[in-house]
Amino acid sequence: MNEFNRSWAQHAAALVIVISKTTFVAPGASEESPALWHTFDTGSAWGYLALQASLSGWHTHGMAGFDQDLTRKELNIPEGYAVHAAIAIGKLGDKSTLPDYLQGREVPSPRKPLAELAAEGD
User: Fold this and answer.
1) What is the pTM for the complete model shown?
2) Which residues make Cβ contacts (< 8 Å) with residue 53, sequence separation at least 6?
3) What is the separation of C-alpha 103 from the centre of its chain, rounded to a whole number of angstroms?
4) Strand 59-63 vs strand 32-34: parallel, antiparallel, or unpaired?
5) Average pLDDT score over residue span 22-39
6) The domain containing residue 59 runs over which residues?
7) Residue 86 resides in a domain
C-alpha cells in the first residue's frame, strides 16, 4: 500500500481486497467461459458494501494505491481472479491524530446538485 493510504488505513478495523472471478460455467455447460461482466458486478458489490457500511455507522474508503501483484502473491489469489481494489473500513477517529497534510483533507467533499446529474423527460 502506498504511503498516503497506509498513513491512515493502518488503523482501520478491516482492510478488504476486492477481487472477481473472470470466468464462469453457464448452467448446462461443462466448460468455463469469460465472465465479461465480472468488473461491473464487483463494482456494484463494492458500492452496496459502502452503502450498508454507512447505514451501519461505519466509513469506507476505496483505494487503488497498493501493489496488486504482491497482494495476489501474499494472499494466494489464484489465476482466473482479478484484483481490483482495497477497501479500508472503520469508524472515524480524531483527525488530530492524522499527519498535517491529511488533516486539511478532512472536510466534506463538494457535491453537484442533483439537477446537474439527472434529467426528466426531453
Assistant:
1) 0.81
2) 59, 60, 89
3) 22
4) unpaired
5) 96
6) 3-25+32-94
7) yes
